[in-house]
Amino acid sequence: MVSAADLPARPEPPVLPVCLLVDVSGSMYGPPIDAMNRMLPGLRHTVLADPVAGTRVLLSLIAFASEAHTVLPLTELPRARIPFLQAGGATNFRAAFRQARTTITEGIRVLDTGIRHQRPVVYFLGDGGDTGEDWRPDWERLTDPADPEGAEVVSFGMGAADRQAIGAVATRHAFFARDRDPVVATGDILAAVAASIVLTCASGHDATPALTVPTTTGLLSLPVDSAV
Q1: Confidence (pTM)
Q2: pLDDT at position 67, please?
Q3: Contacting residues for 143 by C-beta, under 8 A, at least 6 apart
């Protein structure tokens, strides 16, 4: 009779590296950044409450304006603490994508041997147009499908964001908040991000894990066009 000890060990389910890439430029000053600071901890709480995602998500947070800074490296969700964000400066997509690539690759490479991961997902949240240098080369390195650490980018725009640019930075899914009120818009975006994280993490049980982004009445789906 074969005992459980004689059976081959089942591999641990893969973790899901998630990067929140949040615009903190000057246009976010006031109600928009206040709403973001109030609601980001709620996003963490929602995902943490899910029995699958709560144990398998690695969360990072990058704040970008004229420059980009990793304010939370890839961290197991129960240990992740959302820092307070401050707004100011211009909007530099290039710096954002470069920092996201660094944060994801460094975070994945320090994982214990044998820990598998799903394709990383970057959730890009912006409320203005890019004023930096050409971001395409850094975006292409971040999203390289041939790279095991290459990421998907799901983009969300609100306020005065350039809709065409929001569509251009996404790999497959781009959205714009319908409501002009920054509090409502932020809530709609972060609710969609939380739902997407939970659903995408759950898909890791399948043979072909898939990025999932649920539709919501608060968000307008945008065409994805990297030709901008």
Answers
A1: 0.93
A2: 95
A3: 150, 151, 152, 153, 171
